């Protein structure tokens, strides 16, 4: 095991054990714990360190190796330090124990995305201590609040500290899972991401005594039908340019590709795929509606007069909030006029050009690790902080580099799921990749 593997493993363990759990409230996250860890880890010659805290405990850290040529391209490696909540009872091992078991580091955030946050820091420290003097500036950003829309992290930095994080090129999560093909492995690069439209559907009724439900106007019963209709709704398949180029790059047999490029045959085609892949492919080509939270009722013997539903809607490139509203009303049918729909958050889909110097750099450098590999563009179906930097004019991709031991299926199910873990070979590959990318792109 190389020294770099040991370093990144140790740092990842510390980040997991810091328990920077973000439940969406301003009081959660506590990312200052991991900023303190990273500050101590990175402190030394060759790196300039800055921290920013728009709210108590919600710190982000910037580390920079200044370039020698202000006109040369610059690169930002960005990882977030917060993680989503976890139900420890469902895990085989302590989700914050960060145990190394059979060559894998277990813990919340191991794949989302403390693995990359740690490997980026390891690579940047290694470069600085080795005297790396690039033409273009290399910046490392450990950012807070990614798991709750980035209000106290990337959005704050872009809005108020833009000069500290500005870069021509940005790499963040997630990509780089080797997908076997008949012509070597394909490495997906997340060149764009779906938009986010979170909304509340408020369902009204008439209160009454629970002992007399006959012909009552029960908001909970009505809400159940609202949830059923949203879950049953089937929006049209949309074959976007990123999806088309992903399939072309995969070089799959024509008999497999053709149905996946046709709205008429798409659903039948994905029904034959492994579940994790089918979910991913479906989300890449559809607006998705997921009713995830319900609040209502006050007492067991009282018919509820109000139920609030929270719906997670993810939008495709080119879709507007108006488009989503129309789809939601279509899903609800005649119930649309009986409920109140309130938008809670909206962020449009974003994408970067596929043909770029950063794309060429990743295509070159990944071949040092997988000689038989080729990069393919893909749309990430969740939200990342890349969107803030695209709006600043940066080319931003999601990428990493993982071993063949981590399958696309496993990776998909562990994101925000149970038994999250990453193998140490993947940690080594990512750490070494960042060094190679910095040398290749920045000179």
Please describe what this structure looks like.
The protein is of the alpha+beta class and 443 residues long. The protein folds into 2 domains: 3-181 and 349-442, 3-Layer(aba) Sandwich (Aminopeptidase), CATH 3.40.630.10; 193-347, Alpha-Beta Plaits (2-Layer Sandwich), CATH 3.30.70.360. Helices cover 35% and strands 23% of the residues. The protein is built from 15 helices and 19 strands. The strands form 5 sheets. Strands 1-2-6-3-7-18 form a 6-stranded mixed sheet. Strands 8, 9, 16 and 17 form a 4-stranded mixed sheet that branches. Strands 12-14-10-15 form a 4-stranded antiparallel sheet. Helix 1 crosses helix 15 (424-442) and helix 10 (275-285) packs across helix 14. The radius of gyration is 23 Å and the shape is globular.
CATH class of the largest domain: Alpha Beta
Strand fraction band? 15-25%
What portion of residues is helical? 25-40%
- What overall geometry do the principal axes of the alpha carbons give? globular
Secondary structure: elements and pairs:
Layout: H1 3-17, H2 32-42, E1 48-52, E2 60-65, E3 75-80, E4 100-101, E5 104-106, H3 114-129, E6 138-143, H4 154-160, H5 162-165, E7 169-172, E8 179-181, E9 184-193, E10 195-204, E11 208-209, H6 219-232, H7 241-250, H8 254-260, H9 266-270, H10 275-285, E12 288-296, E13 302-303, E14 306-315, H11 321-332, E15 339-347, E16 350-351, H12 357-366, E17 374-380, H13 386-390, E18 395-398, H14 408-414, E19 421-423, H15 424-442
Parallel strand pairs: 3-6, 3-7, 7-18, 9-17
Antiparallel strand pairs: 1-2, 2-6, 4-5, 5-19, 8-9, 9-16, 10-14, 10-15, 11-13, 12-14
